[in-house]
Recover the amino acids of this structure.
């Protein structure tokens, strides 16, 4: 027995390192946590609709509604009180205003511009992000202009996107967020903002936006699911590619993007990690409508804990390197984090 204890070549009969020691109690787990989620990491989407009636339910997104302006103001004020730093606005455009050229997108008195001015007046403490793309405004549901043959006209679309970005900036938008995936759009928008005196307006580029199956409920929310002709694979990224995402990000940074966004979220956390490690830029992701709908549907059937799934999924974005997340769970998560 004595010889066995003195023999250094023999390993002890118990683990020298017990990693479970740092998991045993709540206070230790909190003390050694590598990733932390706070309301500062959250961005809340708001869907807008014309009129002064009641909010409209979105069947494929339980709990999310299209909000008339007065309700949207209250939503923005609530987000501010919860510590959420910014909201992102999306319109449901009246079908009679949807055209092949998407002209309503650059109407300085459109729904987005009016909402931006109203929120800035009522809740100046919160940041406003405006989406730049044509799909809520076109009668064909695409993010760009179409040729007679149905092809996306990249360069002609840039002119319309620039006009859209300018009216949003003039209305008081803090962050322009081009989500259209046209080549060169960040550069022309940055140049136009500078020329118009909007030197401090940020650009959050949807640099790696994939042609994903997870966008369906969002298209219901903005009304483009019924108008979309064909698909968006000719301009949104192929889900099979990751090196291409790094090229897209590099181009947008060179053109003047201040922040980078990857969309969708959880299925593309590998892209988030590569982008953050490669460029060390402010990096965001969008936990999209399909991700939201899956968690809600599973929770409604009792297949998982909704509250636990919300916080676990959002923490995963932080672990992957995100500086922030656009999420339909933003307000709910902020409440849970305050408990």
């Amino acid at each position: 027995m004595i010889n066995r204890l003195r023999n250094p070549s023999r390993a002890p009969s118990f683990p020298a390192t017990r990693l479970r020691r740092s998991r045993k109690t709540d206070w230790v787990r909190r003390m050694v946590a590598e990733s932390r989620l706070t309301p500062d990491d959250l961005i809340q989407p708001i869907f807008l609709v014309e009129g002064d009636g009641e909010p409209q339910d979105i069947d494929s997104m339980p709990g999310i509604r299209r909000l008339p302006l007065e309700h949207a103001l209250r939503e923005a004020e609530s987000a501010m009180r919860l510590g959420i730093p910014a909201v992102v606005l999306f319109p449901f455009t009246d079908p009679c205003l949807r055209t092949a050229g998407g002209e309503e997108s650059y109407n300085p008195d459109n729904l987005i511009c009016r909402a931006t001015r109203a929120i800035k007046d009522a809740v100046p403490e919160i940041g406003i992000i405006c989406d730049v793309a044509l799909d809520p405004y076109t009668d064909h549901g695409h993010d760009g202009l179409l040729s007679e043959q149905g092809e996306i006209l990249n360069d002609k679309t840039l002119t319309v996107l620039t006009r859209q970005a300018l009216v949003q900036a003039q209305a008081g938008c803090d962050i322009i967020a081009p989500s259209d995936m046209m080549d060169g759009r960040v550069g022309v928008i940055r140049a136009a903002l500078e020329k118009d005196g909007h030197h401090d307006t940020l650009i959050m580029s949807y640099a790696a936006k994939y042609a994903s199956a997870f966008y369906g409920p969002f298209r219901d929310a903005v009304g483009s699911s019924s108008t979309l002709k064909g698909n968006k694979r000719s301009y949104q990224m192929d889900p099979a590619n990751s090196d291409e995402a790094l090229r897209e990000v590099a181009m947008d940074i060179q053109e003047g993007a201040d922040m980078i966004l990857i969309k969708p979220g959880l299925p593309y956390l590998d892209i988030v990690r590569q982008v953050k490690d490669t460029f060390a830029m402010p990096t965001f992701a969008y936990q999209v409508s399909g991700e939201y709908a899956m968690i809600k549907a599973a929770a409604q059937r009792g297949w998982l804990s909704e509250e636990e799934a919300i916080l676990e999924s959002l923490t995963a974005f932080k672990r992957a390197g995100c500086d922030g997340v656009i999420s339909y769970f933003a307000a709910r998560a902020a409440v849970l984090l305050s408990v």
